[in-house]
Amino acid sequence: MMAEGTTPAPRERGGSRSASRLAAVQALYQLASTEDPVPALVVSEFRAWRLGKEVDGDVYAPADEELFADIVNGTWERRGTIDAHIGAALTGSRTFDRLERLVLALLRAGVYEIVARPDVPTPVVLNEYVDVAHAFFTGKEPAFVNGVLDNVARQVRGPRT
Questions:
Q1: Would you identify the CATH topology of the domain 16-157?
Q2: In the chain, is it the N or the C terminus that has fewer CB atoms within a 10 Å radius of its CB?
Q3: What are phi and psi of 100, to 5 degrees?
């Protein structure tokens, strides 16, 4: 696992929409780590200083800025509903309160797209956020993210055909 708050190495796959999702997870992590979070300020900061820029030797891929802002703002506005979906999808000994902040940011962004973005097919949401999880983690976290998002998708969107 990478240390929380670090930037993963750029990935070969994905385009501007994938870069938007990665940046949105980072922004949501930042919001969750801030005492008085203001999503509009974080979105502005990412647009001005990170998306498509080089920061401390890390190159941020160009991102679909509209998708990025939608995911960050929409997730933050709906986090009560989103968190309820996540809590209901957890199984075994995992509880909502014990989720790592970065895993929670991943799940929140993915659940937001499942709930609020019916234009994005379920397999795309799952694949994209599992890829983001792989950018940060080398352990079981990507499979966990996949399982929770799949569970939520089945509850919200119904079984896949």
A1: N-utilizing Substance Protein B Homolog; Chain A (1.10.940)
A2: C
A3: -65, 150
